[in-house]
Amino acid sequence: MSKIIKVKARQVFDSRGNPTIEAEVFIKNDSAKAICPSGASTGTYEAFEKRDYKNKKYFGKSVLGAIKLINLKISKKLKGESIHNQEKIDSIMINLDGTRQKMKLGANSILAVSMAVKKISAKQKKIPLYKSFLVKKNFKLPYPLMNIINGGAHANNGLRIQEFMIRPDSAKSFTDAMRICFLVIKNLSKLIKNKRLSTSVGDEGGFAPMISNNKQALELIVLAIKKSGFINGKDVSICLDVAANELFKKNKYSIHSKNFLSVDKTINEYKKMIRKYKIKSIEDPFAENDWIAWNKLMKSVNKVQIVGDDLYVTNLERLKKGFLNISSNAILIKLNQIGTVSETLEVIKFAQIIGFKTVISHRSGDSEDTFIADLAVGTNSNQIKTGSLARSERVAKYNQLLRIEEELGKKARMNKIH
Hints:
The structure is a single chain. The protein is an alpha/beta fold. It folds into two domains: 6-126, Enolase-like, domain 1, CATH 3.30.390.10; 140-414, TIM Barrel (Alpha-Beta Barrel), CATH 3.20.20. It is 37% helix and 17% strand. Strands 5-15-14-13-12-11-8-7-6 form a nine-stranded mixed β-sheet. Strands 1-2-3 form a three-stranded antiparallel β-sheet. A two-stranded parallel ribbon has the order 4-16. Helix 4 crosses helix 5. It is globular, with a radius of gyration of 21 Å. It starts with 5 loop residues before the first strand and ends with a strand.
């Protein structure tokens, strides 16, 4: 009953309207499917995304070649394997690819299958997906890092910083966390409208008003928090994703303005920003290979979560290097950066052993698939980053977490963030 009969893939579309892969794993009398997400702001060391770059019918963005590889190669190789042996299935696909960054089959091909296997295994065991990861009891709900203003590669305004987020630190439940974020977002919408700016949204659902500097965005958020009846830095904290790879040239950074500053001057600007706006978390404050700058920042600030995304790309080797270098105290987890569920869990386990906070994350090209909501609860990850309260591919993850909280009932607890 639990042996794979076949794997079938199809081309579907992500939230940005680009083609992506949905894989469906079949066993006798049942099946499960999963959709692979896709990033815009990507790190150099991420696993490879296979696309038909020469197929001009889809501007080179189709995934028909990857689908063929799943339907012919991967399906044949996995036939007869038990769906309950995730590590074996993932390692078969890793070995079939045989390259360091999954260049042959593509991480998008491998991951779509890997996620679908996890889903069908949980379904057959008759357990919710979140109960099939690392934690077996005392499940905790993550705090949402909710994207409320978009800049950088996610919007076409003049903002340098890619994401301005809020974290509802005073929330006693996930339901309460959503209520707090809802109020701040609605008040922010009114403030933006009052300034006669657009309330249209970026790729991840955050507002993308035509404002040109970080200060303006931060002042708007501080005011929205106040208008909602909360205290900035206590009830609600401002968190940033800088995506500094995009703002780096010749060992200098243009994060705080269009001028490129040295690492030391950039750190001083960060410190001013942290003090003034009570920033609690900064993701990718420096470029992915600027290990010295990361270490300097860690030594310069206190009680701030420094999150590595492009720095680590959910890769165990890079995480170990960052730990030894004292580069950060948290890691962003993106399944498609590494390409299998097993490797992702390995990274989460190690990160938690060394005392890092784990933040489960979506991608800018996402889908209705809610896998990461269950992953966050099933690994007791402290936070989840899955966009704003807009666009159904983002809201789907929040709705799934509300269902999980309801199912846990009185046993439901929020995770620790400090």
